[in-house]
Amino acid sequence: MPSHDMNSFQTVLRSSKHIIAIAGAGLSVASGIPTFRGAGGLWRKYDAMSLATPGSFRRDPSLVWQFYHYRREVALKAMPNPAHLALASFSLPQTRALIAPDSTFTLITQNVDGLSARASQQVQSAQPQFLDVPDDTQTKLLEMHGRLFDVRCTSAKCGHTEFNTTSPICASLAGTELAIAAGDADHAIPVVDLPRCSECGALARPGVVWFEEVPLHLDVIENLVDQADLCLVVGTSSTLYPAAGYASEVQEHGGTVAVFNLEHSAGDEEADFLFLGPCEETLPKALGLTSVLYS
User: Where are the alpha helices (DSSP H) in the chain?
Assistant: First the structure.
């Protein structure tokens, strides 16, 4: 049975040397980002498997782009919550030295909303004296499913990708987020009016990793998992592989796993520590950063 003792967890945290966090959709719920599978979430009418695939985009790029335009608009309005900020603060070597001396830390996120990157920018801008930390001691943020605001050319001859937060990304998508929010996106937009590559003019697609595509940074992540002696599982149901298997891999070579989820999920009973509740509350407390974030 997993332990729920926060003091025992913090003792393990203090002695850990190679720490990773695996983050999922639950990390961003408090920021107003709906989850894939939550009741009443984005997928009431449009199942994730039916939209987030290359085949779906080939069959109906209008519907897929309306869906991702909606997600872009939601993410643009969202702000990092205390769980994002706790992970970003913990990533600063100077902060981490007070909590887990001489340790490394990498956040591996399945989220595409960009809130972890924004939290890192927010934390660093609040502590400009830390901006000149050498690169080899800076935190690593690995967005294994890509970024919602990346826009990728579909032409194999071009392949241009750019970061684009324009709202709306093209005129034809303006206002369609309201239909998606209501579970009704039957308005067909001509392909010629959908987002285009800024380099060659071909049809562009959201720059996220879809089902049937290979996640990013897998070699780097596998090396980190092999080295990790502590794995924090934050806001994920641990059902989507390969991320779902990382915690068990850490345990197999003697590492510790701590799960932070709103409710029970797959693999909970195999965790060493389990903290149920909103991760924006449990995670800052576990990392000893509550006073920092709320001061």
Answer: 6-15, 48-51, 54-59, 61-77, 82-91, 93-96, 115-126, 176-181, 218-227, 246-252, 279-286, 290-294
- Answer yes or no: is 170 a known binding residue: no
| Summary count for the chain: helices (H), strands (E) | 12, 9
pLDDT digits (tens, 9 = 90+) for 234-263: 998 776 778 779 999 999 999 999 999 998
- The overall average pLDDT reported for the chain is 89
- Active-site positions read 145
For the sheet containing 204-208, what is the strand order? 161-163, 146-153, 204-208
Q: How far apart are CA 267 and CA 43, in angstroms?
A: 24
Angle at 163 between CA 158 and CA 167, to 5 degrees: 115
DSSP 242: T
Instruction: Supply the DSSP symbol for 81.
Output: -
**C-beta of residue 32 within 8 angstroms of C-beta of residue 131:** no
Among 67, 176, 72, 174, smallest CA distance to 115 is for 72
On whether 102 is known to bind a ligand per the annotation, the reply is: no
- The whole-number average pLDDT for the span 74-93 is 96
Q: Is-contact 238 266, C-beta < 8 A?
A: yes
pLDDT above 50 (res 136): no
Could you tell me the pTM of the whole model?
Answer: 0.92
What is the predicted pLDDT for the residue at 128? 60
263 is in an annotated binding site: yes
Q: Is 138 annotated as a binding residue?
A: no
Residue 229 marked in a binding site: no
What are the CA-CA distances from residue 289 to residues 5, 61, 81, 113, 172 (Å)? 17, 44, 13, 23, 44
Q: What is the mean pLDDT of residues 134-144?
A: 68
